[in-house]
Amino acid sequence: MSQSPTIRTDRLILRKPDASDLDAVLAFFQSERAEYVGGPYTLGKAWRQFAAEVGHWDLLGYGMWSVTTKDTGETLGLVGPWTPADWPETEIGWFMFENAEGKGYAFEAAQAAVNHAYETLGWDTAVSYIDKDNTRSIALAERLGASFDPNAPQPKPDMPCLVYRHPRPASQSETIQ
């Protein structure tokens, strides 16, 4: 198991989620914005989903980071490695809150997460599982250089999704502390 690093990019801090993120994450999971990650959820299911995000770190030593701004510390979303026990491959996942849209934060955070997965965690491959109707996430995956892989195994065969495969980064662009 690895340490839970904090990653700093030009504008962002990616850190292990904690209780200070709870209200923002619960609001996201209970909103229509969560439609592409199985929501909107009830309060109880939203709470349990956030607990799973936090617990992923304790079980595996890594997970999705809370993405915050360097200047204000505002939580913008969650981005990072996500590998539940029944996932067929290692995933880079993301969801951003409404206040973060259109500013390039998702790209900046996801790029750092892909770099970390390959260069620090030593992954051989990384995919992103994306709902076929989630045009924003498809565009982000493609901007990151990921390619649609129609032959990749599905994480939930009864709920097919698009699988985008991330290339190995040319060089590391994150600062780990």
Put simply, the count of helices is 4
Low-confidence stretches: 172-177
* Largest beta-sheet characterization: 6 strands, antiparallel
At the third CATH level, what is the topology name? Aminopeptidase
Residues in β-strands, percent: 15-25%
Overall SS class: alpha+beta
Overall 3D shape? globular
Q: What is the C-level CATH assignment?
A: Alpha Beta
Number of domains: 1
Number of strands: 9
Annotated CATH architecture: 3-Layer(aba) Sandwich
Mean of all residue-level pLDDT scores: 92
Question: How does this model look, in words?
Answer:
The protein is α+β, with helices and mostly antiparallel strands and 177 residues long. The protein contains four helices and nine strands. It has a single domain, classed as Aminopeptidase (3-Layer(aba) Sandwich), CATH 3.40.630.30. 28% of the residues lie in helices and 21% in strands. The strands form two sheets. The protein has a six-stranded antiparallel sheet with strand order 5-4-3-2-1-9, covered by helices on one side. It has a three-stranded antiparallel sheet with strand order 6-8-7, covered by helices on one side. A hairpin with a 3-residue loop joins strand 1 (7-8) and strand 2. Helix 1 packs across helix 2 (43-60). Residues 172-177 have low confidence and may be disordered.
